[in-house]
Design a protein that fits this description.
By secondary structure, the protein is of the alpha/beta class. The chain has helices spanning about 15-25, 105-110, 115-130, 130-135, 145-155, 160-165, 170-180, 195-205, 215-230, 260-265, 270-280, 315-325, 370-380, 400-405, 455-470, and strands at about 5-10, 30-35, 45, 55, 80-85, 85-90, 100, 210, 235, 250-255, 285-295, 305-310, 335-340, 355-365, 390-395, 440-445.
Length: about 475
């Protein structure tokens, strides 16, 4: 085999995106993956019993249609089918009702009572102009051709979630924004947690929050299939411990976080750059539970069955306290739980009449606390009788998540904290965050802009950066 022009280490969505981008340029590309299957966080396995398909990490894909990289690819031709629930999100409350994030801003607002008009005023300008706003939101730098719109967004987004919800008077709107903002995996009293809530709400209204029919693995397989159609090669079961193990190539792209980059490139970096990578901050971890169920989750609020994604945690104050506890290094007694009931909309994931449930909560990085009982108690709180439906469960704490994928350091599935200090300057402060001081060596993981999420943009931007530098040299 001839030597490849580029070698990509890691086959998560970002690694595959980098490989596809280079292959589209006519370059020969080789992807090396340590596991036996491609995908990184987009893998699906029978974790409980035969016939029950559980997504290992990512399962809901609000960025699948928003990503300018993913939406340009003919992935449907390679087996990808996105399934849209009736509503992107449900947030049950103790009064037996649920707040629903609908595709329509107006329909969402109608369920918020006295905050209906305030929600419309907040969201409608961004949703109506999403084609102008999304390049700014999903870009590698905070640059835009629409500065007034970006400034309007920033006035809210750069606040803490706690500060942003002060515009709302009722519990329903406050709870909705709390659950959305908690995807930041940060203390909701910190800036810019409001931005996560705004972005996810905008994506829900504009693109929905779909699931992949057959499991998230199908998304990775579609990307891999498209890469092969372009002439790219993938070798699984190929763990890389040092750059010296790689075949000779002009470019090397690492879909790895700073800790793994330092291991693989040991001794190659200048002291200053290596020191900066060591200072990179990882965030809280996750404790995840997958269930095989004898029936659908019996939510008290029947409208919850209209959504695949469910935010379980009650009021803004409860959710904020849960996330603050994690930030303080404590395992919360009443954790905020992110749950997904995919089989309501994709019956290929379970035997006939059976269902799955996917859920996790945030915990301190590397925590050894078993959160199973606390998570199930939260679900039972809003769905009495849930435990009676459990056929089997499978749990994974931070250590198990890191064993599954070394990029999940201490259970951090986001590639590092995404606060103001590490939003656009990840992994280090550098004009081109993807390039390293080693010629031809680039980083393309979620530890680079724009950060975590299944969008492929880190790999896309990294590969475009690398090819531009080659063309200009």
């Amino acid at each position: 085999m001839p030597e490849p022009y580029a070698v990509v280490v890691g086959s998560g969505p970002n690694g595959l995106a980098a490989a596809i981008t280079l292959a589209e340029e006519g370059r020969s590309v080789l992807v090396l993956e340590a596991s036996e299957t491609v995908g990184g966080g987009t893998r699906t396995l029978e974790l409980t019993r035969p016939g029950f398909l559980h997504d290992i990490c990512s399962t809901i894909h609000p960025l699948a249609e928003a990503s300018p990289f993913l939406r340009q690819l003919p992935l449907a031709e390679h087996g990808l089918e996105l399934v849209h629930p009736h509503a992107p999100l449900a947030h049950p409350l103790d009064d037996g009702t649920a707040v629903m994030l609908e595709r329509s801003v107006g329909e969402t607002a109608a369920g918020l009572g006295l905050d209906a008009e305030e929600y419309r005023k907040l969201m409608a300008p961004f949703v109506d102009r999403s084609d102008r706003l999304e390049p700014f939101l999903l870009g590698r730098l905070p640059l835009t051709r629409h500065p007034l719109l970006a400034a309007r967004f920033g006035l809210v987004a750069l606040r803490s979630a706690e500060g942003a919800v002060r515009r709302f008077r009722g519990e329903r709107a406050r709870a909705l924004l709390a659950g959305l903002a908690a995807h930041s995996i940060q203390d909701l009293h910190r800036r810019p947690t409001a931005s996560f809530g705004l972005v996810l709400a905008i994506l829900g209204h504009v693109h929905g929050w779909p699931v992949v029919r057959g499991g998230s693995q199908r998304l990775a397989e579609a990307l891999a299939s498209h890469l092969r159609s372009l002439g790219g090669r993938i070798e699984t079961g190929r763990r890389v411990d040092a750059l010296a193990e790689l075949p000779q190539s002009e470019l090397t792209m690492l879909d790895l976080t700073p800790r793994q980059v330092l291991r693989v490139a040991a001794g190659r970096f200048p002291t200053r750059y290596a020191r900066a990578l060591r200072r990179y901050r990882y965030g809280p971890g996750v404790f995840k539970v997958d269930w095989a169920l004898d029936g659908p989750v019996p939510w008290t609020a029947p409208e919850v069955a209209r959504a695949a994604t469910v935010h379980v945690g009650g009021t803004f104050e409860e959710i904020a306290e849960s996330e603050s506890a994690v930030w303080r290094g404590e395992a919360p007694e009443r954790p905020f739980v992110l749950a997904a009931q995919q089989t309501l909309f994709d019956d290929s994931r379970a035997p006939e009449g059976k269902h799955t449930l996917w859920a996790y909560c945030h915990v301190p990085n590397g925590s050894g606390v078993d959160m199973t009982e606390r998570i199930e108690a939260q679900i039972e709180r809003f769905a009495p009788g849930f435990r009676d439906l459990v056929i089997e469960r499978r749990t994974r704490g931070p250590a198990a998540m890191e064993r599954y994928d070394e990029n999940y350091v201490g259970g951090d599935i986001n590639g590092g904290v995404q606060d103001l200090r590490q939003l656009y300057t990840r992994p280090v402060v550098r004009l081109n965050p993807y390039a390293t001081p080693v010629k031809g060596l680039y980083l393309c993981s979620s530890s680079t802009p724009p950060g975590g999420g299944v969008h492929g943009l880190c790999g896309w931007y990294a590969a475009r950066s690398a090819t531009r530098r080659v063309k200009s040299s």
